[in-house]
Amino acid sequence: MSIQLVLRSGFWIGVYFAVVMAPLVAMLIGSIPPGRGFWREFAVGIGFAGLSMMGLQFFLTGRFKNITAPYGIDVVYHFHRAISLIAFFLILLHAVIIFAVSPGTLVLLHPASAPWWMVAGLFGLLAFGVVIATSLYRIKLGLLYERWRVIHGYVSVAGVGLAMAHVVGVGYYAQGPVKRGLWIALAVSWVLALVYVRAVKPWMMSRRPYRIEEIAREHGSSWTLTLTPDGHGGMKFNPGQFAWLTIGRPPFSIREHPFSFSSSAMEPDRIRITIKELGDFTSRIREVAPGTRAYLDGPYGSFTIDRYAAVGYVFIAGGVGITPVMSILRTMADRHDARPALLIYGSRTWADATFREKLEGLRARLHLRIVHVLEEPPEEWRGECGRITAELLARQLPENRMERDYFICGPEPMQKAVKEALDRLGLPMEHVQSESFNFV
Amino acid sequence: MREQYSMRLAITTGALILLVAVVFALFQSPELLDFPETAAVKSAGMVLHPIEKRRDCTGCHGRDGVKPYPLKHAGWSIGSCTRCHTPASGAAPDSGASEARIDEKTGTARPTPHPLQGMEECGACHGLDADHSYPEDHAGRPDVSCTECHTLL
């Protein structure tokens, strides 16, 4: 990673921390209300920080390229998930501490006499609880991804709004121009982020539509959509990146899904996206008619050779994880990139090996060696079998393995196992790149 | 590895926030650090009656009292009241209060001239209909609150 990227990532971490801490600092500026005991003030401090963190989630999930670029959007999304849990814990702790150290405050919960700001706080806490529970247990709750996104979006906004109302209603640390100005600035910035993500950005996307030119069947229950730009020059991207795809709906709809490009980055006006039939949306992808309008929000992602210069590469793919690798290899071929590349590609059966013929075609244009690994090989198979293990890697990796960069893409368990195997072989982990999209 | 990086970043942020919250709470709890209390309270109302021997403000200002504190004060400790609500200098009785109940020498409520044993229900003899009735503005105050001001001779 370049020095510039390190500085940019440090800058955004600093900005994040400063904004989270801002309400606590502002409380001590101007006229300061008297303290009400250590635990009560501690509870207020973590409550304020928790709310500020919740409000900042609109920025973390807003796919702002300046913010995501230094880390990769997957890191930002994982941070969003982890920090949400911490923010919820702080807000819950805020309530628990206040009720525990001041049992008299329980009178505020009485339905007959509860003031509006207490009701707002309670419902805000409940909303955050719903957001966390539906995110952690979406599959167990049987929630479809699209429905979960709607609940997640609206309930989060409601939670932040109610919590803000609670702060204003209590009003203890919200008096005076500095404190009031800070809370107004925070609230306005959250609303602007929402407006940008839900209105401005979709409007910009609506001015750059695509048409589905072709839909082609691939091995392994996968389909490749070819998108051509409708009245614009297409999308420039780095090989290995991905975009959020909306098909047959306006971009204001939140029914969009992330998919990797499988085409060469040298063809921004003829974008191909390969999708495996895995879920509710993807299993209907074969029904998309050519000519259907589509929209792309992207490109995103740091899983690209353009970010990590090396003397050669090793790509380790499993299943549909071959898609971004295909984009990288096609781009290398179009760029006449002579650097050596090794592809270790795990599939369940030979019939499931997506792109196998196209990969053979690329071998003629690149300094590329391909190792297929089949979990259920046919009888006449003489190649590698089973899973991608440390022993298999030790057999197949080139002699200059320490000098190469490694790109892993596939199901989560496969990625984890391969990383552990590479670690066992003594390869430096800073040379191992991967992207993980197991968010919810 | 990338997921772990995010997790480490989030945990570090959470830990730093807790640390800053502790510093903030200590700053607002000068009694813990023995700092001079500098916080000025301009908005809190003055106490318009003497408080010399009255320790439990909630007797009259609790949620069920005659002049209950605002809901926002629920759960605040008894000792915290006078941190903001300071007695007015030369604390005079409430406006409209009966001069008769104030002892001229001490400026506080007149002492009780009789023993209290067996006479815990003050309202029985000093109710509004009684000969020695308390002032009208005392109506509604619980019997237990009388001796907070009217002590034995």
Descriptive overview:
The complex is a heterodimer of chains A (about 450) and B (about 150). Chain A is about 45% helix and about 15% strand. Chain A is an alpha/beta fold and about 450 residues long. The radius of gyration of chain A is 25 Å and the shape is elongated. Chain B folds into two domains: about 1-40; about 40-150, no CATH class. Chain B is built from six helices and no strands. Chain B has helices at about 1-25, 30-35, 60, 80-85, 125, 145-150. The longest helix of chain B has 26 residues, at about 1-25. Residues about 35-40 and about 90-100 of chain B have low confidence and may be disordered. Chains A and B meet through helix 1, helix 2 and helix 4 of A and helix 1 of B.
Largest interface: A-B, 56 and 41 residues
Whole-angstrom Rg of chain B: 24 Å
Helix content of chain B: 25-40%
Oligomer: heterodimer
As for the number of domains of chain A, it is 3
Order of helices and strands of chain B: HHHHHH
Range of strand content of chain B: under 5%
Number of domains of chain B: 2
Secondary structure category of chain B: mainly alpha
Strand order of the largest sheet of chain A: 4-3-6-1-2-5
Give the N-terminus to C-terminus distance of chain A in angstroms. 28 Å
Number of strands of chain B: 0
pLDDT < 50 stretches of chain B: 35-42, 91-100
Per DSSP E runs of 2 or more residues, the count of β-strands of chain A stands at 12
The helix tally of chain B amounts to 6
